[in-house]
Each structure stands twice: as C-alpha cells, then as structure tokens.
Protein: Ubiquitin carboxyl-terminal hydrolase
Organism: Ziziphus jujuba
Amino acid sequence: MVEPLDLLRSNLSRVRIPEPTNRIYKQECCVSFDTPRSEGGLFIDMNTFLAFGKDYVGWNYEKTGNPVYLHIKQTKKLAPEDRPSKKPTLLAIGIDGGFDNNEIEYEDAYSIVILPGYVTLPFPSVELPEKVRLAVDAILRAEGAERKEQVAAWTADKKQVSAYAMNLQQIDNGIIIPPSGWKCAKCDKTENLWLNLTDGMILCGRRNWDGSGGNNHAIEHYKETRYPLAVKLGTITADLEGADVFSYPEDDSVLDPLLAQHLAFFGIDFSSLQKTEMTTAERELDQNTNFDWNRIQESGQEVEPICGPGYTGLVNLGNSCYLAATMQAVFSTHSFYSRYYKNQNLKTAFEVAPADPTVDLNMQLTKLGHGLLSGKYSVPAVEGKDNANATTPTASAKQEGIPPRMFKAVIAASHPEFSTMRQQDALEFFLHFLDQVERVNSGKPEVDPARCFKFGIEDRISCSSGKVAYNRRLDYILSLNIPLHEATNKGELEAFQKLKAEKTSEGKEVSADEIVRPRVPLEACLASFSSPEEIHDFYSTALKAKTTAIKTAGLTSFPDYLVLHMRKFVMEAGWVPKKLDVYIDVPDIIDISHMRSKGLQPGEELLPEGEEVESNKPVANEDIVSQLVSMGFSELHCQKAAINTSNSGVEEAMNWLLSHMDDPDIDAPISQGGHTVVDQSQLDMLISFGFQEEIARKALKASGGDIEKATDWIFNNPDASASSDMDATTSNTVPTADAGLPDGAGRYRLIGIVSHIGTSTQCGHYVAHIFKDGRWVIFNDDKVGASINPPKDMGYLYFFERLSN
C-alpha cells in the first residue's frame, strides 16, 4: 500500500502554485451552493483552483484527472451572548464600519485530500512537500474570486482629499453667512442648500428623478463660474469630518482639510452649528438600512416562513433584489423548471460545460435552478443566528437563502451595468436575461425555454387612400400605457384634490391615510394597446405623399406565459420623469382572445411596395429627439424611439427607450422605406461562411444587421428561401421568424407579480409574489413566506400562464 506522502509526491505535477492573476474559488462550489460551512466542507482543485462540494468533487476528478485538493471545513466559534451590535457607518458589508449584523465567527480546518481514495493528510505540516505548502499558503492568502468581486462592487468609496482644497481661491466680497435662515439665492428652496466655498453663494442642490430635491442652481453656478467646492448647509457641526463637501470637477463627495479656514472666511463659527441635514452618504445609507416596509412587503403582517422545494430565497448581494424577484418569477414557469431542473441534472450540465464552469450560463442556470427548486438549501436557519451555541432549527425561523453570485457574474458579463451593485430596472434585466438564454440555445428552439415568453405583434396601418400595410415584430413583454382618465374612482380623486388644496393653503401636509390614488382596470390598459392611434406625416406609397394614417395593434400568437409591463414612469411638465402613483385592478383570470390580429382581410388592398427614396424614410420628430438627447440618450436611440412610437410624444418615446435599451439591434441602422439597409461588409462576411447571398441578405434584414443574430436566424430557419423575403407592406403571411412560436387560447391566469418600491427603477426595492401550490407566496430576497395580502394592484411586471382549454 502506497504511503500518503508518497502518493502526494507522485502527483506533484498536478499541483500548481497560483499566480496573482489566477482566480481562486474558495467560498462556494462552482456547481452547487455548498460552502466550507456545509456538512462535507469544500474541496479546492489545486490545479484549476475551482471549488467543489463533497458530492461533486468526484465529478471533477473524473472530468479532469486532477487528484489533489485542499479541503476547507468551517465550524462555528462559541460567541459571547452579550456581544454589542455596531451601527454601520459605511455602505458596505463585511468591512470595518460596514454592516456587521452580528455575523457568526467560524474556525477553519484544513487538510490535503487525494482522490479517488480520499487519502487525507493534515495541514499545516512540515512533512508536506514544499510545493504543496507554498500552493496552500498562496490559496489561503489570496482573496477569493467570489469575495473579490463582491467587495469591489459593494464598498462605497472612501472620501479622498480634494485636489482643489489646499489651494482654493476665495473671493472677499463681503458675504457673511448667518447661522440659520438660509435660502437659495435663485429660488425659494430652504432645504438641500449648498454653500459655494469660493464666492459664498448659497444655492439649491440637484433635482431628483421624481422631480423632488432642488432646482439644480448649485451645479449650474459651478458650470458658469467653475468654482469647484461646495459644502451642504445643515451638515456642518463641531465635528467637521461629518460635513458634506462636494467637488463638482471631481464629481464626488470629498474631504477638505482646510474646511474650518474656508468656513471662517465667510464668518461661520462651525462650533456653534447644529446638524439639521443628512449627508449624501447618510441618506444613501438610511435608504439601504430602512426599506419602505409598506403593503408590497406586507410589513406588519405575521407572514409564516415557508421552506422546502421551490421555496428557496435568494440572498441580496447588494441591490440585487431586481435579479432575485425576476428569477423567482422565471423559475415559477414550467419551461425553466423543466429545462434547468427536471430535465437536466447538475452532472450533465457540468460534463458539457467548458473547463471553467463558473463562466458557463447553462451550468450556472442549472445550478441556480437546482438551488431554488430542490429544497436542499431551503431549510430553517438555526435558531438564534447571533448565538453560535444554538444548533436546533425551528419552524418559525427564516431560511438563509442562496447567494446567486456566479449566476450574476455570468449574466452580467455582457452588460456592464448589471455587473455593478447599483439598483437596476427589473424589466431591463428580464429582457437581457432572455436574450442571453436565447443565444446559448440558438439552433435548438425545441429546448429554448425563453420561447415560452415570446410572441408576435402585428401593426395594421390604414392610410387615407383606403389601402393598408401590415408590419410584424417579435417581443417578450407586452408594455402597456396606464390611461389615468379611465380611473374608476374619479369622485374620490376629486374630493382628495380639494382636501389637498385646502391643507396646502393652510400650510399642512396630507397624511398617508388620506391619500387617494387612481384605480385603473387592467382591461383599460389592454384596450389602450389595441386602440386606434393616429400617425402623422405617414408617407403613403399609394398617394405618393405624406398623410395621416391610423395604426392598430394585435398579437399574431399567444405565448405560454404572457408578461405585462406597466408603464409607471412617465414625463410630466418640464420633461421631468415621474413615477405614476396608481393602482391597477388586476383580475386573476384575463381573456385577450379579442386582441388576436386577423391579418389581411378579404376586400383589403395592400399599399404598393415603394421605391427606396429619401421621402420614404421613416422620419423622427426633431423636437422629440432633441428632448431625449438632452436627457443623455444617444441620438440614434432617440430617433428609433420616436419612429417606433410614430412620433406620438416624448413620454411614449421615453417609455419605448426604457423598454428596449437592451435590444440586440438597438445600435443597428434605421431601416428605410420598410427595407433594412444591408451593410455590404456584413453581407460579404456571411457569404464567406458559405451562405447563399439571398439567404444572407434576408438574415441580415431579419436581425437588424447583427451578424451573430443573422447566423442564428439562418440555422433556425433552414427552410428559408430568398423568394419568401417580401416587404411587410405586401405580405399577409406570418413571417418565418414568427413560425413555431408557442400559441393557443387567449385565457390566462395570474401566477406572478414583480413589484417595485421607490421613485425610480434605478433605486428602491423589488419584491416577487408567486402563486404556488394553491396559495400566494412572498419572495423578498431571502425571506420566503405565505402571503396574506398580495399587492395585485401595485405590480410593475405581471406574469400570466395560459390556461389549457
């Protein structure tokens, strides 16, 4: 029998000493959610530095032949019961000053394990070969890849000393700042005021997304004068380090070591000032430690925790609630349940994954699916998480949930915004996610679960010549305007407005209990989608002139799962984005059979195919485009938004933009006269792949000029021929791309709601409610429980499942 040390020496060639650039996984298994705290601990491959749980390390040995592993097992330390809880001072987790949450401390135990016999050697040990000792030391010293990504994204940057502070020029203009009674020099604002440290001007701060905040006078003053530093009045106290100093050229909160001197220049005795305003960091921290626990989160309700298969929560990685709520809804569908859980086990996904399974979407979706649905990790947390001595779980204890780190890293790899820890729009994430799933399943439509959401939309355009045109497109979501004029409680709203006016005149505020919100039926929102809409300046190929046309829309197919997006973010006076404070009355069962498009009808005559002339180009309204460009969007995107909403207004174009920013063809050229202009170099590239020119041209048109999408289209449509490439104005058949999509009856049952709390999709909090096993369940990050009062009237995204006949 071979001695353990001899066995290790014979396998030294399979041991690597990690380089600084190597990613080392030591906190989580790459095919499951096992950790060093799991019963079997964690095994780190000392060649690839990938980590595996006890049930999965054998698979890695079979696949790679790598026999040597560092085994890490963590057990709880006994902790004093009276350990005080520290208040966080930084918007961060797991660092000094960050969120502590009385986390339990653990003791680490290490050993070297050699497969396949699981021969074990202790570590540390002077008897181990030097190469092994060096490799283990490097692994243990290195920050884990999982932790490195989390901390880099989570930690709020510490304030730096401003480059402008030490040599700041101050103008002696006789201004003396009083200790109170401040007001903006350019408006009536008395809060959110900033003192410019160069000239002593007091001006209001920035306007927020929802129209609240200041009037931008402070930053406008900087743009006019280039005076760099300002301090927020109300944050200055004897502790000058707590003052909020902002540097406009550095666009960040900064430290001013000479702040006392700079304040004294304007007669400010900081020792006598009392704090009356939150700093920017405190306000951000306050919003993150105190969620708006209202109806959406069912606060104040005794929500019964639920554990078991299908009831696993997702740990918030830092503003990742948009991902958690969306994925809970997605995995409640039969399509994703079957594709990534029922019909694909973890071993199969691992065997077909590349050498690094952490970057493979199929593997990480299968891992997430098994983590959410198997019930393995949906167990009550040990009673008294703060007490390391506790060992018994209770039925009332909440679960710990699973952290979707690797999945988030993979899905965000092609989208920089989702790789940050900033809050994101759940709709944008949902569309980006489905696009990535469709890509990895390209050429295999029979196994693509994203198709369960996909459907066709047909626009019918009738011009004053009496002739018609039909245009078709595909989508994953039905985005609906909210017609406030269809509110069913108009009398109550009028009474509320009178009460509000009276209280405002008396200098009082309306209490939360007195607020009345419009109630709009979902039927009215669906009717608004299908209702006739005027298109001005429509170029008619029959009249050879511009005219006014009427557009109506319908669906060419009904998906297995219908996702409705409520357009709650609109533009109000002054082009300020605003969230509609409105309730949508949503029934459990809806019937959209009447929304099916009928296509070309007997007696209808199609508009003739026009020449590709300049006058036939889709033209974007310049006013709409300029206003959207001023908000920071690119001109091409704004032109597309205006054209795709038929120049109907800034609000409609803005809604279109927010829903389509992640479209794969968003940067493609604008089509002309119904024909997409095909780039010759792209055409030549596809021809060089061996495709016929006619098929390549059609694929590029169908994909909006995207080479990768065009290639996918060709493989997905092997029977396509150039002769079937007809313009939408002359075809009354469903396009090939629409063929094969799920279709059926138009009756649906509500099964999921993703709700949003906050003034903007870029802040706040997302929660999911899912109908499971005959009851509504709330999924609020890692909190899972029986819902008592699901907020059906407050959803942002609604998930409906088609009912069988």
